[in-house]
From TrEMBL, chains A, B:
Membrane topology, from the record: Multi-pass membrane protein
Transmembrane regions: 80-99, 129-149, 161-179, 191-213
Protein name per Swiss-Prot or TrEMBL: Aluminum activated malate transporter family protein
Biased composition (Low complexity): 468-477
Keyword match Ion transport: yes
Organism whose genome encodes this protein: Populus alba x Populus x berolinensis
Amino acid sequence: MDAGSGSGDKAEFFTQGRRWLKALPVKFKANMVAMVRNIRKLGQDDPRRVIHSLKVGLALTLVSTFYYCQPLYSNFGVTAMWAIMTVVVVFEFSVGATLGKGLNRGMATLMAGGLGIGAHHLANLSGHIGEPILLGFFVFLQATISTFLRFFPKIKSRYDYGMLIFILTFSLISVSGYRDDEILEFAQKRLSTISIGGSACAIISTVVCPVWAGEDLHNLIALNIEKLGNSLEGFGDEYFKRTGGEESKDDKKFLEGYKSVLNSKNSEESLANFAAWEPGHGRFPFRHPWKLYLKVGTLARECAYRIEALNGCVNADIQPSSEVGSIIQEACTNLSIESGKALKELALAIKKMVQPSSADSHIENAKSAAKNLKSLLKSGIWEDIDLLKVIPGVTLASILIDVVTCTEKIAESIHELASKAQFKSVEPTLSTEKLHSGQIQSVKSVQMVNCSHVVINVGESTLPSPPSESSSAPNASKQRMEV
Amino acid sequence: MDAGSGSGDKAEFFTQGRRWLKALPVKFKANMVAMVRNIRKLGQDDPRRVIHSLKVGLALTLVSTFYYCQPLYSNFGVTAMWAIMTVVVVFEFSVGATLGKGLNRGMATLMAGGLGIGAHHLANLSGHIGEPILLGFFVFLQATISTFLRFFPKIKSRYDYGMLIFILTFSLISVSGYRDDEILEFAQKRLSTISIGGSACAIISTVVCPVWAGEDLHNLIALNIEKLGNSLEGFGDEYFKRTGGEESKDDKKFLEGYKSVLNSKNSEESLANFAAWEPGHGRFPFRHPWKLYLKVGTLARECAYRIEALNGCVNADIQPSSEVGSIIQEACTNLSIESGKALKELALAIKKMVQPSSADSHIENAKSAAKNLKSLLKSGIWEDIDLLKVIPGVTLASILIDVVTCTEKIAESIHELASKAQFKSVEPTLSTEKLHSGQIQSVKSVQMVNCSHVVINVGESTLPSPPSESSSAPNASKQRMEV
């Protein structure tokens, strides 16, 4: 603090203070505008958020009428509080999460209530001094055991909340019994208020603009595969345009789409977990094979790792010389565009829930492009070129060839999904001629997929190809016959 | 059911039933044994789980004494229930998570209690009919707004639980006020019982065998980098042994260690989030730079993507021919072993919280191995070999060279962490001579890192190297001078 060192300093201090005070409303206004913009963006990104918030408000207001209506209040009294609590805690964004939490809460309350009453009666038998000791021991024992059980991965993923409520209810009911002998009524009131709150959540979340976790998972997987396809399609053009000398940093954003796929594991798993709690909805029956989506997601992530490596090539300091580029450009571009198209067709097939046969021809094209690329690499045209200049091109080519393998695996897993989930086969009315030639092509390609599985595997394929699943390809071709 | 088709079938049915009944105890015993084994394994994997369970039991038993002691019960009555609730809900595995939840719950209750009382008074003014309508409107409004705010990523990551409790408390207190005019006492009781439960959690989780999220994050990052190092070290040997003809599927497990690094993002982020709530503990002061660990973690993950690509080479169907293998073997093995050693030294430096200067020499070695590899690729010895046979080796080499770049970046970020977190410089007493030569080497290497940053960048380096951070390397060398 040097405010006291002179009158000039003091004056300056006050001037600064006045300036700061004058700037305050401007700053405040700027902050408010930024906040409003943020809020609007959050709502526009996913309008279901706004609807969800309104739904929570509605459920809470409905349940709080218990307090306002005399007949309801005289029945439940203060325990109506638990209905409010249940709504606040159980109401989640998706129907599956809400139902899962509600069922967990209900079942856990029922079981823990029964056990708690049992513990209370047992403790009652042991006399005035023994009762609190025995009750304390029971509470300690069940809390310790239940907490430990929560570490089991299977329990953690599906019943974690139930275990929590089990501990809570058991402790509350067995301990309350010490003071209040109307423990049965207490337990029954807790159960019924929780059921009322839970039912309100379940009904409002299912009926009013429901958000289905299963549908979200379905769309997320389709979107992720589409992103991979976009990145691949754009890649070929982008890479060789750049080595041709033109720079286009702005256009590269769509190439980055795959990045979000790299870390999508957790959201996929939790969505699949929620989806398992949901009843049939829209196009998805109860017991839709949600787990297969996780398999497709894992393969998509493996493909994304490859594209990450490709992206490394785009950003590398050393680019293939133009003579190398011109030799492999066509095959590479073809390969990446065809793989990209195949992935986009697969994504579209998932979205529309039809058999993904239209992707097969693109996969065939990608495979023949890979064959081309391989024979180019085999040919003698490289002998005159410095190997160091060839390296970036060769690396690129072998990663691309690996991408084709990944794409094939994704297609297989989606074929499996399509047959297990009984996706529709494509209607013959849609441009029959094109479809017809497509059919022949795709039947051929399915045969080729089945018999020559590992032929074009150059470079760094990840895993030995699994035995082709008999369920997918034959079913696909059978359903195509029914068209 | 064909049980009625003949007496023979009936007899068989009963025989089967008897056999099933006889087998029941055996099955039951086998299931029990399997369960006990699972439970024991869960406890042995991390004994802190058992301790945590006991701690929860202890806290809950302590808090439930409120019900047993007459003087305590007469003070709080049934509201003592909230103390039990708080313990069950707030007590988490790590200190940071417990403190974070407890503080969230406490602050939210305080704020919502104040607002709830305000809402109650405001509604009170509007007469007998207007009161429930106005109260309902307030509940609806705040539930909607608060639920929407929970979608903000920043609020979601740190204050999600607080927002939940805010909605809960506001609704409870403003609604209860309609029936019970002693609303101030109600709010005060809720706050004090929650504080008691929260304090019990905070004290027990901090004092009795505490589990610190910060320490876990620190160890996780060190372990992940060590895993990468192990995979790289083992890789060189494994790859060329296999191309030499020997198969050793069993030994390959340690190569898979890096896989868990690929998906570690979420656990790292939540640990860093919890760690921010923790006070200083052990070697970590309050405001330890936890966010830098996330940066190191991100770079480690990028390195893991490269190793995933390397793993693709190991599992590829086409392996480099033995003549190609013999040419690049030494350089590749050197490179991967030295990068692996560097990463393991870095992991050790993090573990021991010392300046990571001992890794610098290994990084230098890895860089010169990369140089070697590059000049090998440049040399004319390849002209007689079929290019297709060269491809796997070249791909391998260029990914390995990229791994060196990744290792360098990890080292830089750990240097930054070491200087920001003021890691100790290495004591001069430990084998002075070796250390002395190491010092010269590492000072040299730091200079080299600073001046020639992108020299050895062949193939698919990911991103243009960032401007070398002035904070890390100079500080590191300065601290080394202080030794």
